Amino acid sequence: EREMTWKQRLYRLLILLGIFAGVSLVLLLTGINCPIRYFTGFSCPGCGMTRACLSLVFGHGDLGERLRLAAQYHPMVFVVPPLLLYAIWGKRPLFGSEKRELAAMYAVCALMLVTYGVRLALHDPVLSMDWQDGQIARVLHALRGGAGF
After folding, report:
1. Predicted TM-score (pTM) of this structure
2. Residues 103, 33: contact at Cβ < 8 Å?
């Protein structure tokens, strides 16, 4: 496989940004902040990552305050976005070999799940874990004629 040119990488980035903007617009217009939380009532392991990135880039206050706020929203903000940027623009395969690339992806996924577990155990206020708030539970409730679960 040949190396991508900078034009191909830019094109890929613009497509991703376009998809992100389109999905964000739909979510904004419908009032759905997070589709996973909307349908299930549960926050996903990535919950808070968008707010963390936005607070880093567009936040108020000095850099220290922005870093603190970003870490509050999602502690993995210092790992996942840089890795994604490297995956888009970095040397292929990532980290010099396909084995290292795969190992890094598995490690980041595992770290995301561990972070999620710790956040749940510490009752992180960013996370929501209420099945009754999800649309699936509401639909099931309505189908059962309002009877309890």
Report:
1. 0.73
2. no
> What is the Cα–Cα distance from 77 to 60, expressed in whole angstroms?
17
pLDDT of residue 137: 92
The closest of 53, 52, 35, 56 to 44, measured between CA atoms, is 35
Give the burial class of 55: count Cβ atoms within 10 A of its Cβ; 0-12 exposed, 13-18 middle, 19 or more buried: buried
Q: Which residues of the chain register pLDDT less than 50?
A: none
pLDDT digits (tens, 9 = 90+) for 88-115: 777 777 778 889 888 988 999 999 999 9
Angle at 54 between CA 44 and CA 132, to 5 degrees: 30
Closest CA to 36 of 102, 107, 135: 135
Maximum CA extent, the chain: 60
* Structure tokens that stand for 149 in this block: 């679960």
Spatial contact of 47 and 127, defined as CB atoms under 8 Å apart: yes
Q: What is the 3-state secondary structure (H, E, C) of 65-92?
A: HHHHHHHHHCHHHHCHHHHHHHHHHCCC
